[in-house]
Amino acid sequence: MTVHSGLDRLAAGELREVLDGRRVGLLCNPTSVDRELRHAIDLLRGGGAGGRLVALFGPEHGIDGGAQDMAPVEGSPDPRTGLPVFSLYGRDAASLEPSSEALRGLDLLVHDVQDVGCRYYTFSFTLLLAMRACARAGVEVLVLDRPNPLGGVAIEGGGISKGYESFVGIASVPARHGLTVGELGRLLAPSFAPGVRLSVASMVGWRRAATFEETGLPWVQPSPNMPTVDTARVYPGMCLLEGTNLSEGRGTTRPFEIFGAPFIDGERLAAALAREDLPGVRFRPLRFRPTFHKFSGETCGGLQLHVVDTRSFRPLRTGVAVLRAVRALWPDRFAWRTEPYEFVSDRLAIDLLAGGPALRQAIEANAPLSDIVASWRVDEDAFREARAGALLYAHA
User: Fold this and answer.
1) What strands lie across the sheet with 258-261, from one edge to the other?
2) Of 178, 208, 234, 252, which has the fewest CB atoms closer than 10 Å, so is most exposed?
3) Cβ(40)–Cβ(78) under 8 Å?
4) Is residue 318 within 8 Å of 281, Cβ to Cβ?
5) CA 194, CA 339: separation in Å to the nearest integer?
6) Which tens digits make up the pLDDT trace of 219-278?
7) Which 8-state DSSP code applies to residue 326?
């Protein structure tokens, strides 16, 4: 399989008529490269693609991808090109959306950022907020589409309950939605950014059932703790640990694949999870010492997830199983995070991630894993039907 991303098509000159004669802003980060690892900034500035690049916009972690999770990024001129850089992840919720001043004078905002296919990975909502601001400012939006590294078939998780909207759940979509960022924009534009003039430069050759490795495209880590495609595969489940006092593996070389805490006995936890018969994954007990973040410098017991079958693996189901097992084994040591999370201080982080309190309450009530998974099905089925008109790519 040979897949050409939206940026590959731009590099080949296919989008010149869309860009010619226009003042262009680019929402980008280190993942904004073509098959030859040429960055979108250079391709747009070179003149062959058309248009005049006049401003840069950076999502969480910044256009250089160096800032840690939830660290504010300041806007400043790009040291290499001198172009103004507008941060879309600053010190408050208002910073998440481009200002009218930042968009002034633009004809077109081009989005080229690799998403990881999970609702609470904030890049897709950065696009939605930018679309909404562009609708108000009369600026067109062009999404250069890229693969969903989790594939485009499986859907996992419920929606967002009223009152639990946040930057990890601005729109009510499942944790694992099975859409590319371009498809997600098409789906949500009418309700979230009415009036936006949105176009998507679709990929050539991508099929929904493809793994990222099958595309032949290079993987560039989109954030400091998303180093590999394997990280992305486990993220929809293991990111839930951000809503707890457990280490999600930040400060190790395998974040989200490695997890634990000083009070955890990895052998006991592995035995408990083995009884859940989780598909496509195996657990290896280990001890680790994070170099930063939770339990920095402390020795933790825990597990590493080894995904052995990417198509049968269900990351959200697995992550919930982990939370249930740890709480059952160490009820006096396990705790939910109470610190502010993604600019929200009046609701628990786990409830924002899960889209409401139902998951937390089910875990606290020792509900069976099968019952929790079954509770998502109505929302999953409704979303599968709702997304049909936004799909751009065939199954196989």
Assistant:
1) 258-261, 300-307, 281-288
2) 208
3) no
4) yes
5) 34
6) 999 999 999 999 999 999 999 999 999 999 999 999 999 999 999 999 999 999 999 999
7) H
